[in-house]
Write a structure and sequence with these properties.
Strand order of the largest sheet: 2-1-3-4
Helix content: 25-40%
Number of strands: 4
Radius of gyration: 15 Å
Length: 166
């Protein structure tokens, strides 16, 4: 692995829930080996993540400072950080035509149901966000525990897809 952290971009259409959870959680778990970002093809208005996503992160003791909904265009330009791995976390984003990413990063799809979907009561949605965070945590804990050789450019695609069950 390189001496710099491994840059990981999580994509979801609105960049308000699942990708925000993954970004904050990987930055929390990554301990300097990983640097996580998130974005979407159609980010949430006013660049605000879903309030329930922020609430469950805070409940889990994970920092939420600086989290915002962002367009994936921010990460496709020449001044953007070069990504090593891009993970789609919703089926809609996985099916969209993505920008061409500088550096040709590894890619994987880790699909999660949208915890904000439907007309459930706030308590039920809150629980859906907690469960989504737990599911994301399991995969990210496995990712951060991989040895350096499994995170090399030659192995990263296989490692990320293996964790997804692909």
């Amino acid at each position: 692995m390189t001496t710099r952290p491994l840059n990981v971009l999580f994509l979801c259409t609105h960049n308000s829930a699942r990708s925000i959870l993954a970004e904050a959680l990987l930055n929390h778990l990554g301990r300097g080996r990983f640097r996580a970002y998130s974005a979407g093809s159609n980010p949430r208005p006013n660049q605000q993540p879903n309030p329930l996503a922020l609430a469950v992160l805070r409940e889990a003791g994970i920092a939420t400072d600086g989290l915002r909904s962002k367009s994936w265009d921010e990460f496709a330009g020449p001044d953007a950080p070069e990504m090593d791995l891009i993970i789609t976390v919703c089926d809609d984003a996985a099916g969209e035509v993505c920008p061409v990413w500088p550096g040709h990063p590894a890619t994987a799809h880790w699909g999660y149901a949208d915890p904000s979907a439907g007309d459930a009561l706030d308590e039920a949605k809150h629980e859906a966000f907690r469960l989504t965070l737990q599911r994301i945590r399991r995969r990210l804990e496995a990712l951060v525990q991989l040895p350096d050789e499994k995170l090399s450019p030659a192995e990263l695609q296989n490692s990320a897809r293996f964790l997804a069950g692909e």
